């Protein structure tokens, strides 16, 4: 693959044409000077500084200015207009109805077009920048390391609030994730952070009308986890359609979307047991085993049968994930 083809492959689906042209020119200019991952990060910083007015340390700002010298000036940016910092946008005065009384139609149109960017819109732009930055963060890092690197790069803050099994995650002062896990879920912190990262990368984030929470594709923070798990199950349909549906094969597919398959057994009256298959605190399936089915070989066969049924449910798009109040899982299928 040549230099141009390699750089062209870096275009993100959410990038505007003018932003991409600037970033592409930057990457082509320094293609031979930096490793690929470092060049990706530097190119995004260049866009953040040039188009969004972001500010970083003086040494980094000087580096970006030096590397970007002449690039921005050579690109036509008239298609999308000028960009302003959020702080500058806040200082613009809002247009009052009285300002337009008696004004010519052209003047009214001009003033309306120059209306300031609202606080919501300005923050939504920052959320879009967070998604772009997070997508360039090395994915070999832990979820917490990825969020820390991305929010630091966007001059944002994030923190996790945990009370017993309830997890809330805030970005700046807005709640972005809220879920109460069951006692059977071991790594609730990792589950929550990974679900938030998946939501940021897969959805459009925006403040709600009340301005107290961040919603992904309009989904409330209370449902963020359920929708993230549902999306990840949808992402493995391609793999499920091309392979076997055994416990091992299904587990491998789940691991590809950062989920793991767990078998829970519970002793009942007599010699019978209850076998549950759970992933990410989602109850996938449950079956009562008779005394003759409680042997290891029999349970393995039954688990394979249950996985085949679950895979078929996912493949036929009949698996909607909802919040649940069951004692052994916090999510369930709504068939």
From TrEMBL:
<dbReference type="GO" id="GO:0005730">
    <property type="term" value="C:nucleolus"/>
</dbReference>
<protein>
    <recommendedName>
        <fullName>XRN2-binding (XTBD) domain-containing protein</fullName>
    </recommendedName>
</protein>
<dbReference type="Pfam" id="PF24799">
    <property type="entry name" value="Paxt-1_C"/>
</dbReference>
<feature type="compositionally biased region" description="Basic and acidic residues">
    <location>
        <begin position="106"/>
        <end position="118"/>
    </location>
</feature>
<dbReference type="Pfam" id="PF11952">
    <property type="entry name" value="XTBD"/>
</dbReference>
<dbReference type="InterPro" id="IPR057067">
    <property type="entry name" value="Paxt-1-like_C"/>
</dbReference>
<dbReference type="GO" id="GO:0005654">
    <property type="term" value="C:nucleoplasm"/>
</dbReference>
<dbReference type="InterPro" id="IPR021859">
    <property type="entry name" value="XTBD"/>
</dbReference>
<feature type="region of interest" description="Disordered">
    <location>
        <begin position="98"/>
        <end position="118"/>
    </location>
</feature>
<feature type="domain" description="XRN2-binding (XTBD)">
    <location>
        <begin position="7"/>
        <end position="91"/>
    </location>
</feature>
């Amino acid at each position: 693959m040549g230099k141009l083809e390699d750089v062209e492959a870096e275009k993100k689906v959410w990038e505007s044409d003018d932003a991409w042209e600037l970033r592409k020119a930057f990457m082509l200019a320094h293609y031979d000077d930096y490793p690929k991952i470092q060049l990706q990060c530097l190119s995004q910083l260049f866009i953040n500084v040039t188009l969004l007015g972001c500010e970083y340390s003086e040494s980094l700002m000087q580096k970006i200015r030096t590397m970007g010298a002449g690039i921005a000036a050579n690109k036509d940016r008239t298609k999308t207009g000028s960009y302003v910092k959020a702080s500058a946008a806040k200082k613009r005065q809002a247009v009052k109805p009285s300002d337009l009384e008696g004004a010519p139609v052209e003047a009214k149109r001009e003033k309306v077009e120059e209306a300031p960017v609202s606080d919501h819109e300005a923050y939504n732009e920052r959320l879009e920048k967070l998604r772009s930055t997070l997508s360039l963060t090395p994915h070999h890092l832990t979820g917490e390391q990825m969020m820390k690197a991305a929010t630091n790069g966007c001059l944002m803050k994030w923190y996790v609030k945990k009370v017993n099994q309830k997890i809330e995650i805030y970005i700046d002062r807005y709640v972005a994730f809220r879920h109460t896990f069951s006692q059977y879920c071991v790594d609730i912190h990792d589950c929550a952070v990974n679900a938030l990262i998946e939501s940021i990368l897969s959805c459009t984030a925006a403040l709600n009308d009340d301005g107290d929470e961040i919603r992904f594709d309009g989904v409330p923070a209370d449902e963020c986890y359920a929708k993230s798990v549902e999306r990840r199950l949808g992402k493995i349909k391609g793999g499920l359609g091309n392979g076997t549906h055994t416990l091992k094969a299904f587990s491998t597919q789940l691991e590809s979307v950062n989920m793991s398959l767990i078998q829970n057994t519970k002793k009942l009256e007599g010699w019978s047991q209850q076998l549950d298959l759970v992933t990410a605190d989602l109850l996938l399936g449950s079956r009562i085993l008779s005394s003759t089915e409680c042997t290891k070989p029999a349970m393995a066969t039954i688990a394979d049968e249950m996985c085949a049924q679950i895979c078929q449910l996912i493949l036929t798009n009949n698996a909607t994930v909802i919040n649940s109040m069951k004692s052994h899982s916090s999510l369930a299928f709504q068939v």
